[in-house]
Amino acid sequence: NKLHVMVMLLLRAGGKLLGLFSAITIGLSLVHAFQLKQKLKMSLDDPLAGKTVGFIGCGKITTAVAKGLARGPDGLRPRQLIVSPRSTGRSTALKQLFPTYINIAQDNEEVVEQSDIIMLGLLPDVAQSILPALTFRQDQLIVSMMATPTEQELFGMVRLPHEQVLKTIPLPGVDTGDGVVLAYPAATLYARANFPQLLSLLGTAVPCTQEAELKPLIALTANLSPFYEWLDRQATWAADKGVDPEVARRFVQATFEALVAGA
User: Fold this and answer.
1) The Pyrroline-5-carboxylate reductase catalytic N-terminal domain covers which part of the protein (predicted)?
2) What does each C-alpha distance from 249 to 51, 200, 228, 236, 260 come to in angstroms?
3) pLDDT in tens, 26-63
4) 181 and 96 within one domain
């Protein structure tokens, strides 16, 4: 009888625990579903297509990123791009390439005044002299494309809440929407809908949870130039053996694209 009573008590306790576990599981599922719904709602309520993106600095990285955004599909890309007059040759070339979509500002102050999202593409010493003198609005988002300044240095220069400032490292291919963009902090990337919307037009965003992760990943990009050179050697070798140079190039490109896709 005592054994029977003990078994019954254990079964009842187990049933309660199972019920509690099920309730917790259902609760977590509901929370997850709610979070996904909120993210979707945020994306719909705050579309990138209604925003103007401005660039302070107009070097190689800015040029590539601006091209990638400008080539994005209507309805997903920003409403308009505005670039600073710095590096006149590059800014003029962008304007000529996208005459109705890209405008050239008179100065950096105009970029800040007219933009909802501001992308920074300056050399470190130039950034330290220019950015603190600008007054950013409290509703603006900042996307740094500068590798050298630390997160804290960046906060000090733009003086905006942390969740509105994202540090990125755009890599080759962003001009055609096929690149990779390192992004830090990962939490900030998903804190505002416009951040992932913006980076998705450039390619694949790789979020980092720690700033220290950026340096070794950036170091890996040193392999890019030797890799391109090696691919060129493969195509050149085939051409020297009588293959049409364009056929050789397409073959090498397609072969290694397939290998990378399956890696």
Assistant:
1) 52-147
2) 40, 28, 12, 8, 17
3) 444 444 444 444 444 444 567 899 999 999 999 999 99
4) yes
Whether 96 shows a pLDDT value over 90: the answer reads yes
The residue written with tokens 């390192």 in the block is 182
pTM of the model: 0.77
With DSSP H G I counted as helix, E B as strand and the rest as coil, what are the percentages for the chain, rounded to 5? 60, 15, 25
At residue 261 the predicted structure's pLDDT band, cuts being 50, 70 and 90, is confident
260 domain residue, yes or no: no
Distance between CA atoms of 171 and 205, rounded to whole angstroms?
A: 10
Expressed as residue numbers, the domain containing 136 is: 52-209
| Whole-angstrom distance, CA of residue 121 vs CA of residue 76 | 23
Burial environment of residue 194 by CB neighbours within 10 A (0 to 12, 13 to 18, 19 or more): buried
**Same domain for 122 and 96:** yes
Same-domain check for residues 14 and 136 = no
Q: Could you give the number of structural domains in the chain? A: 3
DSSP assignment of 171-201: -TTGGGT-EEEEEE-HHHHTTSTHHHHHHHT
